[in-house]
Amino acid sequence: MKMKTYRVTLTGTTPLLLHHDNIPWADRMEVWKNDPESKKKSRAGDDRSPGFRWIGCLYHDDNVVSLPSEVLMPLAMQGGMMVPVPGAKGNKNFKSQTQSGSMIGEPFWPLLVNGKTIPMARINSLLHEEDFEKHQDLAARLGFMLFVKRAKVGMSKHIRVRPRFDHWSAGGTLNVWDDQLTLGVLRQIWTYAGQ
To answer: Cβ(129)–Cβ(51) under 8 Å?
Structure first.
């Protein structure tokens, strides 16, 4: 089988909520929380305290907010589940072939809002800013929002903050070596992935 490389643009038709399970960031937040100076300002179970807690939820390549291949491949799998294999018996779809017959070409695809990347330097300028309202203002200027919602954790409700992108796209290359993953099939898979 000969490998083909395609340029893919993933256009979101629904909001994207980012929640990177960032272990080093969680460790940093634990140190902040246990600092005697921080204890006076911290509100237990409230991600708005400190205001910069949400930054650890972002995926990025150090330069811009991005979607890593570890997020994109499951999107392809979900899209592949929606596309039936022509002529196959039963409910066969392209779920497994998206994982065994293709691979994202780069470690990250830049996330675009209104066609523009989101520079991490702008976000990192608030790494020590504890005022949550200043973070909300910056997010709005960069074209996204900080989604605030109560979430049940055990028997209590905590306030969670996650970056939400309502109008977004991401793009990069896709390497394909499965002959059944034709251009038409790939368009269907990635259209569903964007939804």
So the answer is: yes
What gap in Å lies between CA 142 and CA 37, rounded to an integer? Answer: 31
C-alpha to C-alpha distance for 165 and 52, rounded to whole angstroms: 18
Residues 65-89 have pLDDT tens digits of: 999 999 999 999 999 999 999 888 8
pLDDT in tens, 96-129: 999 999 999 999 999 999 999 999 999 999 999 9
What phi-psi label fits residue 59: left (phi over 0), alpha (psi between -120 and 50 degrees) or beta? beta
Domain tally for the chain?
1
* Host domain of residue 45: 4-194
Furthest CA-CA distance within the chain: 66
The answer to whether the bond into 50 is cis (omega within 30° of 0) is: yes
